[in-house]
C-alpha cells in the first residue's frame, strides 16, 4: 500500500512519522467530554459549553497561526505553537482545581489551532500541485495510524491512570517537535522554480478581499461548517451515547470505536481514493455527507456493539472522502502568499461548525435525551449533502460556461 507514496520529498515522510507520534498521543481531546462530565462532575450543558469554547478558541489560534506562518515561516510557527500546546497540558496532571485545569486545556487548544495552518501550508509548499493529493493522503494516513492505537491507551489511562493522560499527550508533542526541528527544512514557496497555476498566483489586498474573489471557496466553506457540526458528534454525542448504553464500559468501548475508525482509514483510504478519483471533488464530498447521515443517523436505533462498529465504518468512509478531497481543493485554489491563511479559514469553519454542533447538541441532550439526537443529526447531514451536490452541479455548469 505504501508503494503508492514513493518519490515524495523526505520532509513529507518525516511529517508522516510526526503525525503518527502526535496523534498516538492525542489523549485528551477525544475524552474531553467524558473527562468534564465523569471526572469533574459537570452537567452535559456545561460540558457542551466548554467543548464549544475549546472549538471557538482554536479559531483565533488558527487565524493568528496562519498569518504568522505566511509572514514568519511555517516551520517556526509550528515549533512554537506545538511546544506551547504541550506545556499547557502538564499542569492538568498535577493540579486539582477544575477551573485551572479547564483554563489550561483551553490554552492548549488555542495553540493547537495555530499548528494546523502551519503544517498544511508547509506540506503544500514542499509539494508541487500534482503530488499534493499523495502528500496530504500520506499525512492523513499518518494521523490515523496514530489514532488507531492511541485511543485504546487513552481509554485505559482514563480509567486507571488519569494524570498520565495529560503527561503522555505533552511528551508526544515534544517528540514530534524535535523531529521537525532536526529533519524538516523550511521552504520558501516564492523561490521555487515550478509552474504556478492561475489559482495559486500571488494576490494583493487583505484576506477578505482575496476571499471575495473566490465565491466557490466561500460557499464550500459554509457547507463544510455544517459537515463539521455533524462530524463532531463522534467526539461529543457518541461517547455520551456509549456511556448511556454500556455504562462503566463506555469509555473503553469509545476507545475501541476510535480505533475502528482509524483502522478503517488505514485499510480503505487508498482504495477509496483510487475508486473516487474519477469523480469531481465536490461530488465526492456530497457522497460523504450522505454517508454521515446514514452512519450517524442509525446510532439512535441500534443496541449491539457490533452495529456501532458498522456505524463507525460508514461515517468513516465519509471522513475519508472529505479528507482526500477538501484539503487538496483548498490548497490548489489558494494564492501562495495567502496559503496558510486560507488553511486557517478552513480550520475556522471547522471550529465554528464544531462549536455550534456541540453547544446545540448539549442543550438538545439536556432537554430531549441522548437517544433523540441522532434523528436531528440525520436530517442536518442529509440537508448539507444536498447543498454540496447542488454546489457541484453549479461548479460543473460554470466550468462549461467559462470554456
UniProtKB/TrEMBL annotation:
Localisation per UniProt entry: Cell membrane
Transmembrane segments annotated in the record for this chain: 12-35, 47-65, 77-94, 100-119, 140-158, 164-184, 216-234, 254-275, 282-299, 305-330, 351-370, 376-394
Its membrane topology: Multi-pass membrane protein
InterPro entries: MFS, MFS_dom, MFS_trans_sf, MFS_Transporters, Sugar_transporter_CS
Keyword Transcription regulation attributed: no
Record GO cellular component, one term: plasma membrane
Keyword Transferase found: no
GO function term, MF aspect, one: transmembrane transporter activity
Major facilitator superfamily (MFS) profile domain ranges (all copies): 11-400
Name of the protein: Dipeptide/tripeptide permease
Main location: membrane
A family per Pfam: MFS_1
Keywords for the protein's UniProt record, in alphabetical order: Cell membrane, Membrane, Transmembrane, Transmembrane helix, Transport
SUPFAM superfamilies registered for this protein in UniProt: MFS general substrate transporter
CDD domains per the UniProt record, alphabetical: MFS_MdtH_MDR_like
Domain of life: Bacteria
